[in-house]
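Journal club prep, shared notes

We agreed each person brings one worked example of a sequence with its structure written out as tokens. Mine is Response regulator transcription factor. I'm keeping it raw so we can talk through how to read the token line rather than staring at a rendered picture. Sequence first:
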Amino acid sequence: MTEPIRLLIADDEQLIRSALEALLELEPDIEVVTGADDGATAAARAIELRPDVCLLDLEMPGTDGIEAATLIAAGAPSTRIIIVTRHARPGVLRRALAAKIVGFVPKSTPAGELAQVIRDVAAGKRYIDPEIAAAALSAEHCPLTDRELDVLRATRAHSNVRDIAEALFLSPGTVRNYLSAAMTKLGMGNRQEAAEHAWQQGWI
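Then the structure, token by token:
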């Protein structure tokens, strides 16, 4: 008998994680070795335990699923990673593929189908939900530079320019210039609107 697929599940919603753990443990060839309720903890446990597959919620506090995947890929390169998401924002798939994620599924996926995706990914295959793939192909092109994206990402976590500047090790004037350029390119009236638009598109 072959060894079961060792699985880590990370989701900040306790009920969803518990339900997934219970349902997937019913599969004879899948063993849930640990769980986590945030991305940083998931990455640390994955690097320590080296599971075969990590099932990561996209939207977790602090370190999101894609950021956690990047950490796991660096510290446990043999671990395969699947992202689960409720809202498949258009640009997120491109970020996921850049982070070497090999599975991307919606949270509405039935447990039986998810178990098969886990098996396929563990066997070296890639699985991208067809609707998510179609949305990514029709997504709006990102006109922003990496630094403009950085300041918009920081805008979601910090309320004023000085805090953004400190977080990114930039001067407040430089941050204002990047924010102004981003708002102009996106046609937005303030930095919060620009950051929200970039987030909705999956650019940050």
